[in-house]
Amino acid sequence: MNPTSRGHVELRGEHCKGCGLCVEACPPKVLHLTTQLNRSGYHSAAYAGERCTGCGICFYVCPEPGAITVLRRAA
Ligand code: SF4
Ligand code: SF4
Predict the structure, then answer these.
(1) Count of other CB atoms within 10 angstroms of residue 41
(2) Where does the pLDDT of residue 2 fall: very low under 50, low under 70, confident under 90, or very high at 90 and above?
(3) 41 alpha carbon to ligand 1 midpoint, in Å?
(4) Is the CB of 48 under 6 A from ligand 1?
(5) pLDDT tens string 45-60
(6) Residue 16 placed within a domain
(7) What is the pTM assigned to this prediction?
(8) Which of 24, 30, 57, 74 is the least crowded, having the fewest Cβ atoms under 10 Å away?
(9) Which CATH number characterizes residue 61's domain?
(10) C-alpha 27, offset from chain centre
(11) Does position 24 have pLDDT exceeding 80, yes or no?
(12) Does any ligand 2 atom lie closer than 6 A to the CB of residue 46?
């Protein structure tokens, strides 16, 4: 986890369908769709690597089980 971030998000590209819901929903806009295609032919989501707050919104909007895991730094 980046020491300057309150949270961390792990994206499993092989489960992602590239719908972009997480990218739109993320408040600090730290997610994006990659230019490369995953094995299923989708532009999967990726994390910029810092400034995730651990809010969990991306996890709740994602329709694909297992694509997103959110970790939150202990207070
Ligand atoms: S947990 Fe919140 S801040 Fe972090 S990537 Fe998901 S929506 Fe963005
Ligand atoms: S919401 Fe889920 S399926 Fe859609 S782009 Fe994000 S990780 Fe991929």
Answers:
(1) 8
(2) confident
(3) 24
(4) no
(5) 999 999 999 999 999 9
(6) yes
(7) 0.94
(8) 74
(9) 3.30.70.20
(10) 12
(11) yes
(12) no
Assess if residue 25 is contained within a domain: yes
Domain membership flag for residue 1: no
Distance 43 CA to ligand 2 centre (A): 10
Specify the pLDDT at position 36.
92
What is the domain count for the chain? Answer: 1
Q: Are 33 and 43 contacting, i.e. CB atoms less than 8 angstroms apart?
A: yes
Domain span at 14? 7-70
Distances in Å between the Cα of 68 and the Cα atoms of 44, 55 are: 11, 13
Closest ligand 1 atom to residue 57 Cα is 7
3-class DSSP state of 35? strand
Q: Which of 71, 53, 75 is nearest to 9 (CA)?
A: 71
Residue with the nearest Cα to atom 8 of ligand 2? Answer: 16
Atom of ligand 1 nearest to the CA of 29: 8
- Residue 51 belongs to a domain: yes
Mutate which of 10, 21, 40 for ligand 2? The one with the most ligand atoms within 8 Å of its CB, which is: 21
What average pLDDT is seen over the chain?
95
